[in-house]
Amino acid sequence: MRLIANQTIDMTEPLWRYFKTERIVNFLETGNLYFSSARQFQDPFEGAVAVLPPGFPVDPRYTELNGDDRAFEQLRRLTKISCWHRASYESDAMWQLYAEDWKGVAIRTTLERIIAAVKPFRLKPEYAQEELWGGNVTYVDLLKRRLNLSMMERFWYKHMAFSWEREFRLAVSVRMAEEFGVAVPELGVFIEFDLDVLVDRIYLGPSLVESDIEAVRAAAAHRGFGDRVRVSSLLGSPRYS
Question: With contact defined as beta carbons under 8 Å apart, do 226 and 220 qualify?
């Protein structure tokens, strides 16, 4: 794995990924993690080097994409990303946003585990291995600053309004593969991981229904790490005296 911009990263910092139940069960059964195309994200500033204030007049000379803009738009299609949350503890906000209002499941890991667990990714077995990139996202006030970065580095810089995400990103670019005539999926790709190495803990969401709890526990047990399953701390009993 190549760390973006030669970052110095705490290899043991906890990283969290929050899943909807059907996706975590599929992941536990197959070991294949979905990496979305950068075009699939809702963030309208994905890859932006600056943000104009609301109501700022648009210069008519910039209404059409130039060569660099078109090239980056293609790179967004050809860059496949997996987003993780950096935190020492589970997050109520993440449960609500990414796990169907507390009904999902979270996996806790570290970058050390990710590097050891990820398996070589090829678009087809006979093709060359694609390089995996990783790094912490840096949050910048794009209303005040214009970034001067390589196109690939842009995916690890985001507008300050998203700093609450505390994101760690994994990404693979299949641009070179397409340039050599390889058919590239329009949306995401699946990358395989050794789950026994990757998974430190599995946390059951506080509103998970019993049938889903049983499905997750069964999938984890089948993998041989049923003892790593925990319930969310949000299911604890509050005391007021």
Answer: yes
- Is 11 in a helix, a strand, or coil? coil
Residue 173: inside a domain: yes
Number of Cβ within a 10 Å radius of residue 83: 17
Which domain, by its residues, includes 43? Answer: 2-54+64-235
In this prediction the pTM is: 0.90
Give pLDDT, residue 129.
87
- Model confidence at 170, pLDDT cuts 50, 70, 90, reads very high
pLDDT at 210: 94
Q: Is residue 163 included in any domain, yes or no?
A: yes
Q: Is 240 part of any domain? A: no
Looking at the structure of the chain, the number of domains it has is: 1
**Residue range 181-205: mean pLDDT, rounded:** 93
- Residue 149 structure tokens: 């970065």
Residues present in the chain in total? 241
Residue 59 lies in a domain: no
Classify residue 8 by its DSSP letter.
-
Instruction: Report helix angle 21-30 to 210-223, nearest 10.
Output: 10
For residue 36, what are the β-bridge partners? 81
Cα 146 to Cα 192: distance, rounded to the nearest angstrom: 36
The Cβ of residue 155 has, within 10 Å, a number of other Cβ atoms equal to 22
Tokens of 36: 């979305």
Q: What is the CA radius of gyration of the chain?
A: 20
Cβ proximity of 19 and 27 under 8 Å: yes
Of 127 and 115, the one with more pLDDT: 115
Q: One-letter amino acid identity for 165?
A: E
| CA 23/CA 59 separation, integer angstroms | 44
Number of H helices and number of E strands within the chain?
A: 7, 12
